[in-house]
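> example.struct
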């Protein structure tokens, strides 16, 4: 049952059941009945319009650059506010994302030497990580 259907069921006039009891039976909070979604302010709508126009011209602008551009245009707003508006609009800057899991072709792949070895006692196998190499001397 959707949230809207539950609200209709709770709002139906039933003298035998209180609203609290109806909400409990349907598994919903009473506060959802009284919640009114806040409207977006005119200032935010204007900012979103400006962000959309600039993003259309420069889709690689992220929140930092967009905030800087808006400040140059005389609009106030911090980076968190701009990020929230961009998330509401479903846009994000086009930038390379981390791609750390894919091995490079030119890197050597070492065999797994413990494959098939039965480890049945403590201190039988030791391991170390030398990813960052030894410190330089001198």
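> example.seq
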């Amino acid at each position: 049952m959707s949230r809207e259907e539950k609200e209709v069921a709770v709002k139906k006039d039933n003298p035998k059941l209180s609203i609290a009891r109806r909400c409990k039976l349907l598994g919903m909070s009473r506060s959802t009945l009284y919640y009114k979604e806040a409207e977006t302010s005119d200032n935010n709508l204007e900012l979103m319009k400006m962000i959309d126009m600039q993003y259309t011209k420069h889709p690689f602008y992220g929140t930092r650059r967009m905030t800087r551009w808006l400040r140059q245009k005389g609009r106030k707003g911090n980076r968190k506010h701009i990020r929230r508006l961009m998330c509401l609009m479903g846009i994000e800057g086009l930038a390379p994302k981390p791609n750390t899991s894919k091995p490079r072709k030119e890197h050597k792949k070492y065999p797994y030497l413990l494959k098939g070895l039965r480890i049945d006692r403590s201190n039988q196998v030791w391991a170390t990580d030398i990813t960052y190499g030894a410190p330089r001397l001198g």
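> remarks
The helical segments are 3-11, 19-26, 31-34, 42-57, 63-72, 79-89.
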